[in-house]
């Protein structure tokens, strides 16, 4: 290269360097003007799209990594002021801006006031729930769960400061006359550790909480703990007014660590723990629910289309501990869910001594000994519903009940008092035994009725141990196909336990308590199968305020239970699932509807197989019965209530 060319190149490089320096200097000098222009554009967009009036007194970029804002106010159009801020100073990582990340290093915030106000149906935060208008994509994009979770967590970690102070923070929620106010006088963050006191006021009640923890960007870790001062309970506000629920606890702690494990996957691990939990809500339990301690150590793997809770995860529930496994995958818009729990032999009282007080009222105080093991498998592929797998096995070894809890689980073996409920209100009480004039022993009930009900409700009742896993599985498959709860898969034992022990309870834990009581009764033979069936037929509802087979035979046919014919027995079996709607089985002329033919042939064929009727009788069975007694008058009143159309 000759000397003249070198000189030209040096001159060009020099000019470019000077231009770059001048550009940088110009940008630096004009940085506040550019910042204000950018801010004003965003304010104009917020006003145009969301109806927000945003103003500030000053906004300044100091140096290249400090921003200071004063006098910020956000007021939704024709609404109460949403936010007021006196001073905000941010120190951020300048170089991370080039990668599109705002990484906050230090924050100094003073007098931030947030007011969430709703009057009637109008709130000053409605815009937060407005759906954004999105253009219809030309090609449907696959949702990447690991990527979305990673981006969200990275945003959170970028915004969490390593140091700072937040003074005089106030958050108020007012709904009509109900007021909740949360105040944070001072929250300090030093070397990733934070500490703060919180004052909570709901109406005229005050609480003082303490929160502390760690916000560590470098290790991608969040830790937080919340507890009340002076060893009082933390009482969550708002819930009682809004949901008629009360939730309180001694302490709550949580931690999360994110790790990138390659191949587009991330791992999340941490602990969630609570002590002294108390919950009050009628949908859960008529009494308060108490959990001494609960702890969940989790290890989650996430990929583009799946999330997996590893079996190394650990659940501690009072004395009970186990390792759950859960896998959720989405393929071609169809979900596949698999869950397992395998707990090898453990002391029985770890289970029964860990049931939360108030949630399992019949089992409260029960004492057991011996060993148990548990296996659970649930595998559901929504693209192949018929392939659903459901397994639940509680095995026992040297198991004994030392002492019953609040309820004598063997009470059905002897005469006992039964109360029928309608909408959680008692409507009728009677003894299930010889002292009640309408009680009918099993040997005084027509075998045709006994077998018809068995074949309709639970054909293998005398052979199973209270549960029919295949029936539950088939019922669940059917419910998923029709997208509603159409079948239950309940056995006679399950129906008995629900009516005798849980009739008043309408809460989400009832099914679990029902399953435990069924298991105890069947495993320890607390009541014989014959006696259980006798109780079932004597308390079953057969129509509005018609309880027991004695009343049913009299109400429909003016007969005794021993005198029922095949047709009458099949009819009575058909109405057990819907006793209050038995009239829907009849035409206006008082005849059974045509759709009953299939049911009659089904049960008649089963009676033939069991040897109770001949093949000739089974083939000649028709849904034809003669109603007498009280039911006849009710059917007549139904017919008379149907308006007639006048003819011309």
Question: Please, could you describe this protein's structure?
Answer:
By secondary structure, the chain is of the alpha+beta class. It has 15 helices and 27 strands. The strands form 3 sheets. It has a 23-stranded mixed sheet that branches. The radius of gyration is 35 Å and the shape is elongated. The protein starts with a helix and ends in a 7-residue tail after the last helix. The model is unreliable at 14-28 and 642-648 (pLDDT under 50).
Quick structural overview:
The protein has 648 residues and is of the alpha+beta class. It is built from 15 helices and 27 strands.
- Give the overall shape: elongated
Low-confidence stretches: 14-28, 642-648
Main sheet overview: 23 strands, mixed
Mean pLDDT: 86
Q: What is the number of strand segments?
A: 27
Strand content: 35-45%
Q: What's the helical proportion of residues?
A: 25-40%
Per-chain topology:
Layout: H1 3-29, H2 31-50, E1 52-55, E2 58-62, E3 66-76, E4 83-92, E5 104-119, E6 122-123, H3 145-159, E7 163-175, E8 178-190, E9 193-202, E10 205-216, E11 221-228, E12 234-235, H4 239-243, E13 246-249, E14 251-262, E15 265-281, E16 285-302, E17 306-309, E18 314-317, E19 320-322, E20 324-331, E21 334-347, H5 348-352, E22 367-381, E23 389-403, E24 416-422, E25 425-432, H6 447-457, H7 469-482, H8 492-500, H9 510-523, H10 529-539, E26 541-543, E27 546-547, H11 549-557, H12 566-574, H13 596-609, H14 615-620, H15 629-641
Parallel strand pairs: 5-7
Antiparallel strand pairs: 1-3, 2-3, 3-4, 4-5, 5-6, 7-8, 8-9, 9-10, 10-11, 11-14, 12-13, 13-15, 14-15, 15-16, 16-17, 16-18, 17-20, 18-19, 20-21, 21-22, 22-23, 24-25, 26-27
């Amino acid at each position: 290269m000759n000397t003249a060319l070198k000189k030209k190149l040096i001159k060009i490089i020099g000019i470019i360097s000077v231009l770059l320096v001048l550009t940088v200097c110009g940008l630096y000098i004009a940085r506040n003007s550019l910042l204000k222009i950018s801010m004003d554009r965003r304010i104009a967009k917020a006003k145009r799209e969301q109806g927000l009036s945003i103003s500030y007194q000053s906004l300044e970029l100091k140096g290249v990594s400090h921003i200071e804002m004063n006098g910020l106010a956000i007021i939704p159009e024709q609404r109460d002021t949403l936010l007021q801020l006196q001073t905000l100073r941010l120190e951020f990582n300048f170089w991370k801006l080039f990668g599109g990340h705002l990484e906050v290093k230090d924050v100094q915030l003073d007098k931030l006031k947030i007011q969430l106000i709703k009057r009637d149906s109008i709130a000053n935060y409605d815009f937060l729930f407005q759906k954004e208008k999105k253009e219809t994509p030309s090609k449907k994009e696959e949702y990447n769960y690991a990527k979305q979770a990673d981006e969200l967590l990275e945003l959170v970690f970028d915004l969490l400061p390593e140091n700072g102070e937040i003074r005089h923070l106030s958050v108020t929620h007012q709904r009509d006359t109900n007021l909740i106010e949360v105040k944070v006088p001072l929250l300090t963050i030093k070397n990733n550790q934070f500490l703060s006191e919180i004052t909570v006021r709901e109406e005229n009640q005050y609480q003082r909480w303490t929160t502390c923890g760690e916000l560590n960007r470098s290790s991608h870790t969040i830790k937080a703990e919340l507890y009340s001062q002076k060893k009082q309970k933390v009482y969550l506000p708002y819930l009682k007014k809004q949901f008629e629920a009360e939730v309180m606890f001694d302490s709550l702690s949580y931690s999360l660590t994110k790790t990138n494990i390659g191949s587009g996957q991330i791992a999340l691990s941490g602990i969630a723990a609570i002590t002294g939990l108390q919950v009050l809500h009628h949908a859960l339990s008529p009494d308060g629910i108490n959990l001494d301690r609960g702890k969940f150590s989790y290890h989650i793997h996430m990929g583009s289309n799946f999330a997996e809770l590893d079996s190394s995860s650990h659940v501690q529930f009072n004395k009970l501990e186990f390792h759950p496994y859960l896998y959720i995958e989405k393929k071609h818009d169809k979900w596949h869910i698999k869950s397992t729990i395998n707990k090898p032999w453990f002391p029985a009282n770890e289970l029964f001594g860990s049931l939360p007080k108030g949630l399992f009222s019949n089992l409260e105080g029960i004492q057991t000994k011996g060993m148990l093991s548990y296996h659970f498998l649930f595998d559901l592929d929504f693209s192949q519903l018929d392939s659903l797998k459901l397994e639940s096995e509680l095995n026992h070894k040297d198991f004994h009940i030392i002492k019953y809890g609040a309820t004598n689980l063997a009470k059905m073996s002897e005469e006992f008092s039964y109360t029928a409920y309608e909408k959680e209100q008692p409507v009728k009480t009677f003894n299930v035994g010889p002292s009640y004039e309408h009680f009918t022993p099993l040997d005084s009930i027509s075998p045709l009725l006994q077998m018809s009900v068995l074949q309709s409700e639970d054909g293998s009742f005398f052979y199973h141990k209270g549960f029919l896993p295949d029936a539950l599985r088939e019922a669940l498959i059917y419910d998923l196909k029709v997208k509603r709860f159409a079948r239950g898969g309940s056995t006679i034992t399950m129906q008995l336990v629900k009516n005798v022990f849980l009739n008043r309870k309408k809460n989400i834990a009832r099914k679990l308590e029902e399953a435990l009581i069924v298991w105890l009764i069947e495993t320890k033979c607390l009541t014989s199968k014959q006696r259980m069936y006798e109780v079932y037929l004597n308390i079953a509802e057969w129509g509005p305020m018609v309880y027991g087979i004695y009343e049913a035979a009299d109400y429909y046919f003016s007969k005794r239970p021993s005198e029922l014919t095949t047709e009458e027995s099949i009819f009575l079996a058909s109405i057990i699932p819907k006793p209050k709607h038995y009239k829907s089985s009849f035409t206006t002329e008082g005849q059974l509807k045509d759709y009953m033919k299939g049911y009659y042939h089904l049960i008649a064929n089963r009676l033939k197989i069991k040897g109770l009727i001949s093949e000739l009788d089974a083939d000649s069975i028709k849904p034809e019965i003669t109603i007498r007694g009280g039911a006849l008058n009710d059917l007549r009143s139904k017919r008379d209530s149907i308006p007639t159309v006048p003819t011309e």
